Amino acid sequence: MTGPTPSPERARLAAALRELKVCTGLSLAGLAERTAYSKSSWDRYLGGKALPPRQAVQDLCRLAREPDSRCLALWEIAESGWSGRGTDGTGTGTTSIPAPTSAPTPQEDTRTGHKRAVMAVLASVCAVAVGSVTVALLLLPRQDAEPRSSRSPSPASSAPGPRCRGNTCEGQNPSHMYCHDADTLATRRTATGAWMQLHYSEKCEASWARTWSTRIGDRLEMTAGGPVRSADITDDIDTESYVFTDMAATRPGTTVRACLLSGASGKKECVSAPLEAQR
After folding, report:
1. Name one GO molecular function term (predicted).
2. Are 12 and 115 found together in one domain?
């Protein structure tokens, strides 16, 4: 017996994710080894049988070395319908359209923007993949906009628990250690337009920093009372993607600090947050 047909929004998202998988050159097993999601979970996500967690979309974009803004726009639309935020309240997933008026309402403008965002995502998910994505690139989310700081993954996640905790997380990759159920401690935009964020995972008892909208030559550093963890921006792909440091074990009462050193000016800008204030 076959499962229910995925919604058009979820089907479009799945098609975009399949194109990204081609870019990675990985099998389902390979994706499972490099992310927090199992082989069977990736099979459901890529087949449109289940809505992937937001983090899974970000992880796939990272593996494909593609900016995640396009696919996240598709994910937002698919998640809106799945959660009921974009439905008519009947649970059918049908968008409620108001009666025609002499001028478009703000709600109509919003829906139009969402539809255009869907088309935009399908335009160019992967430059090297041969696929069915042929529509024109229209509206995309602002590249310099601050990403959501809410916890992830979503309730649909089937990710296992963390692989490290406390000192055993020192110097580890947060994604590889399944530490993505994290809080955002602080966010700052630098004078060059780059962004920095501090993250902390209570389950892993560790923190790390990430940056985006950077320039080649920039360097991100973070510390939580111990060794400095750093990440360099080395190419154009780094400037268009999230770049994050390895983790540092972090105890309540510790001040977590991240600094971005501009490769062009040599100027360093920092952001910090006491962990105890977030507990």
Report:
1. DNA binding
2. yes
Whether residue 187 sits in one domain with residue 88: no
Cβ neighbors of 149 (< 8 A, separation 6 or more) are 184, 187, 197
> Quick one: 188 and 119 in the same domain?
no
User: Do residues 172 and 258 share a domain?
Assistant: yes
Three-state secondary-structure class, residue 206: strand
Q: Which residue has the tokens 């920095």?
A: 196
How many domains is the chain partitioned into structurally?
2
pLDDT digits (tens, 9 = 90+) for 10-69: 888 888 898 888 888 888 988 988 888 888 899 989 988 888 999 999 999 988 888 888
Q: Among residues 27, 78, 33, 87, which one has the least CA distance to residue 52?
A: 78
**Spans of the chain, pLDDT less than 70:** 1-4, 81-160, 180, 277-279
Report how far residue 261's alpha carbon sits from residue 215's, in angstroms, rounded to the nearest whole number.
Answer: 10
